[in-house]
Amino acid sequence: MLFPSESALRVDPQAVAGSRDYDIVIVGSGISGAIIAKQAAEAGKRVLVLEAGTGANRSLVGYDDLLTTFYSAAAKDNQSPFPVNANAAMPRSPQLRKLQAGETDSSTYIVQSGPYVSDTTYTRIFGGTTMHWEAKTPRMLRSDFKSRTNYGQGLDWPLSFEEVEEDYRLAEQEIGVSANVEDQSYLGQTFPDGYVFPMRGLPLSYLDQQVNNGIDGTSVDLYGRIYPLKVRPYPQGRNGIPNPAYDGGRGYRPVGAVNTHQVEEGGRCQGNTNCVPLCPVQARYHSGKTLAKAFRMNGKSGQPLVELLPQAVASKVVIDPDSGKVSALEVKVYEDPRSPVYETISVRGKVFVLAAGAIETARLMLSSGLRSTSGLVGRNLMDHAYLLNWALMPQICGTMRGTSSTGGIVDLRDGPFREKQAAFAIDIHNDGWGWATGAPTSDLLELVDDRNLHGSDLRQGLIDRVSRQLLLAVMLEVMPVESNRITLDPQFTDALGNMRPILSFTVPEYTMRGAAYARQFSRTVFARLGAQDHTSYDRSDFGYVAYEGQGYAIRGGNHLAGTHIMGTTKTNSVVNKNQRSWDHENLYLVGGGSMPTIGTANVTLTLAAMCFRSGRDILNYLH
Amino acid sequence: MHTHSSIRTLDELKEFLHGAMQLEHATIPPYLTALYSIMPNVNQDAAQILRVIVVEEMLHLTIAANVLNAIGGTPDLTRPDFVASYPAYLPDGETDFEVGIQAFGREALATFLKIERPAARPEHLKAQSPLIHRKSSQHKTVLGSHPRNKDLHFYSIGEFYAAIVEGIKELEEKAKREGQTIFTGDRSRQITSEYYYSGGGELFPVFDLKSALDALELIIEQGEGDGGGIYDDDEHELAHYYRFEELVKGRYYLKGDKPGHPTGPPLQIDWDGAYPIKPNLKVAEISDGSELREATVAFNHRYGEFLALLTRAYNGQPSLLLEAVPVMFEFRNMMLELIRNPLQGHPGLNGSPTYEIGKNTADPYAAHRAEAAA
User: Fold this and answer.
1) How far, in whole angstroms, is CA B306 from its chain's centroid?
2) Chain B touched by A60 (CB under 8 Å)
């Protein structure tokens, strides 16, 4: 898949400001904006995509530069490949610390107002957070769309699973999901007759198989109901073996690496363990692949239909007071990531789409003074809460082989227990204890510094330690709570003078009850595996939460949602079921922020599906 | 001895297709070695261009195997002469030229350009014999030679493939007249796109005349281009020759560019950014008993096993290609070891893979040692 040459892509800020013929102006080049841009271009519409980052990584060389940065980084966190850019700053988890009661920490990009400190991240570069995502693509369950009705918890969606199902298939096509229908048909999930995923399921890792050997056929009892256990493969947005039966036997054509100059790689998953933060061969989907298709489409005059303006940070949504419609976007275009020098341009279009992620979209709305009729902009912030559990397996399990996560324990994603406590899905991490302890670096330091090992003893010590590591990452449901939210304060601004997001968050009790159970559940699994539990949560941990006399370190899942939820009326929600603002008819707020609940599904597939729906609505509006 | 240039029997066609597989494989060791000789963090553009070309050569090898399978042949990459002895020779019109194993650099690139350059026969030579007597030494591999007489080679790789295309057409026509077909191969032996994809073309099953001709056309176009245009048929893909030329010119081609005049963005080449391997190294030149020698022999052994695995994959077990993936990582690591270590007795030069596969000469002292031990 080729990007057009650099010269065709380069747009001049002044030309953009002077242009009066954009049908759609999109803020953000992540998967939401990319899908809408591609759909619009297919319908012959003129689209401008604004990207806060430099856009350098849209060429293969630029992408490889990110890899080099990652390889040479001392701490391999989610954002380590992405150079610091104060003009488009992003949260970086290693910078966090625990808050004292009532304290606010403004030393990081997201101002942490507590009481819970979240290490949640999103990526402000070309491709958005799909540049660092893990690419697990489970669908939400049918019951997830009706959790208020079914369990008296959270909110119901204004959409049913049935209304979203077809768009799930479009999203699976766009991402190029590798999965087998038979593996995903659990907990009542159904697929249309004859449906196959674009690519065949990726195999479970050896570690997954070892865990499965220990638990398959066993079960747990929760509130009097039996839940059988096994390790199931996750559907994944990475290139595997195209399924010849896809699309009625027409097969599926995967997208390899994107680039500018005929130096394409095959882009098939090679099992590298650093999917997060960056796949070395672009086997993992990122929205640059969707945008590459969009950028290639030309209008009748031969001019590209989709333009990209990088280094452009949207700073204000301007509303026409008479019509209530958006008349323009104010955009700060900076010259250089190392300098705060910028010029402000005004961009006009017929429809405006804010696709900057749940936090940045809310930030832009709030900084424009647009709280919405419901007053819910910025509220109901959600992110999956992760509880990490780690143990040493009795035998060598080949940890560190295979992609970040290939399988997990997902049979407690649903059940009547959800009336009382959060559902969860468990990822088995092929990269060992890394997320919890900093392994394998931490193991190396311990073996050298504390145990004085060297030579073959050290090598054997590392093998013995690392290849037996098992990390169960429990991903817990978090329900919408209005007081969990993003706010702004003029005293906290970034390099361009834009107000930074302030995060106020309390992990809901519903989630903590699930976490407490998940801890016991993990101990049960470890016991069945004969694995030695090494889990411990430090009181000084920034994410430490006490619940019923026990303490837990809760981690963010980077599955941000809920800051502009969809609903049935302008008083109970910010957007309608097509993600169109109730208050401003030519404004769409798209992405995770529209989700009223997130269940136990990583949010990307669902928000991608919703963007197909919005894309159609936008085209209808324009006609 | 006279050898006709046209293909008259199915067995002859099979031999030509084996020759095609040998030819397509023969460019892989030089390209791969040059690719892995590049030092870390330099020559990224060159590494990407080399990589994509070598991946396409693997596609061509597999396509040739598909065509051979389609006519009921049995691809065999373990034949003793399958891997060329380097330096090998490729036809270049009236003469031939050396293709060796060497590090990335100006010389290597000059050879690669020659490999990929379409050699069109000038008008005044058109009437002459299609086969040329070899100019190179008798003991060297000449690729694109006549399967029955290694002393005669085709004027160009293009003409070698043209002979195959003609042979297939004629033999199929003849079979059709008798109510038969030459495409009798078991379709389950075909390698399909499930096992290969990139921007550089697709693997499709070969089962009739049309699919066979499409397959061969893909090989011819990607390699040589089709005489003139810098892009292949659908204006999508840059022919290999022009990809290498981008490196020489230090600039990328854009669509619409004239041959020899790329107008795209510049690219950086560090001509010293490659490990100085000794060209066309042989195991016998490496000190006996040294670790480097052991590693070189181990690589040859592993590469031979890889070709045996491919042979099984091409003979009815396509899914074995998945197992071949980690083996390719493995021998990449083995090659990097050879390339990044000094060669004793040759100051300033490093080791290199020797690609002496399936030959007892790979370790002439092994028998000796075994004897001594016995």
Assistant:
1) 15
2) yes
Q: How far is B237 from chain A (nearest CA, A)?
A: 7
In angstroms, the Cα distances linking B73 to B17, B176, B206, B210 are 9, 19, 13, 18
Query: Of B11, B20, B4, which Cα lies nearest the Cα of B164?
Result: B20
Query: Which of B39, B59, B198 to mutate: most A Cβ within 10 Å?
Result: B198
Handedness of CA B31, B32, B34, B40 (dihedral sign): positive
Determine, yes or no, domain membership for A247. Answer: no
How far apart are the C-alpha atoms of A131 and A275, rounded to whole Å?
10
Say if A387 falls within a structural domain.
yes
For residue A552, give the CATH number of its domain: 3.50.50.60
Measured between CA atoms, the residue of chain B closest to residue A281 is B48
- The rounded distance, in Å, linking the Cα atoms of A64 and A60 is 6
**B243 touches A: beta carbon within 8 Å:** yes
Interface test mutation site (partner B, options A68, A262, A272, max chain B beta carbons within 10 A): A262
Contact A492, A500 (CB under 8 A): yes
Which tokens is A491 given? Answer: 């005293």
Closest in A5, A61, A268 to B264, CB measured: A5
Interface pTM, i.e. ipTM:
0.82
For residue A270, which residues of chain B lie inside 8 Å, CB to CB?
325, 329
Q: Decide if A244 and B194 are in contact by the 8 Å CB cutoff.
A: yes
**Residue-number span of the structural domain to which A57 is assigned:** 6-236+266-622
In degrees, to the nearest 5, what angle opens at C-alpha A227 toward C-alphas A221 and A233? 140
The closest CB to that of A265, out of B45, B51, B237, belongs to B51
Rounded Cα distance, A1 and A296, in Å: 10
CA distances from A326 to A17, A34, A319, A366, B366 (A): 16, 21, 4, 15, 81
Put simply, the answer to whether B197 touches A264 (Cβ < 8 Å) is no
- Residue A318 forms part of a structural domain: yes
Residue among B44, B193, B252 whose CB faces A251 most closely: B193
What secondary structure, in 3-state letters, does B119-171 show? CCCCHHHCCCCCEEECCCCCCCCECCEECCEEEEEECCHHHHHHHHHHHHHHH
The nearest CA of chain A is from the CA of B35 a distance in Å of 14
Q: Which amino acid is at B247?
A: L
Residue A254 contacts B, CB cutoff 8 Å: yes
Domain for residue A260, yes or no?
Answer: no
Answer yes or no: CATH 1.20.1260.10 is held by domain B10-249: yes
The pTM for the full model equals 0.92
Residue in chain B closest to A199 (alpha carbons) equals: B194
Residues A260, B194: C-beta atoms closer than 8 Å: no
Interface of B with A in 4-33 (CB under 8 A): none
pLDDT tens-digit profile, chain B (374 residues): 445 678 899 999 999 999 999 999 999 999 999 999 999 888 988 998 898 889 889 999 999 999 999 999 999 999 988 999 999 998 877 778 899 999 999 999 999 998 888 767 777 777 677 788 877 777 788 888 888 888 888 888 888 999 999 999 999 999 999 999 999 999 999 998 888 776 566 788 999 999 999 999 988 887 665 555 676 555 567 888 888 999 999 998 887 788 889 988 888 899 999 999 999 999 999 999 999 999 999 999 999 999 999 999 999 999 999 888 889 999 999 999 999 999 999 999 999 999 999 764 444 444 444 444 44
Mark yes or no for CB contact A244/B192 under 8 Å.
Answer: yes
Minimum distance, in Å, between the CA of residue B34 and any CA atom of chain A = 16
* CA distance readout (Å), A383 to A481, A507, A508: 11, 10, 11
Q: Domains in chain A: how many in total?
A: 1
Give the sheet arrangement for strand A111-115, strand by strand.
A111-115, A502-505, A485-487
Q: Looking at beta carbons, which residues of chain B come within 8 Å of A244?
A: 192-194
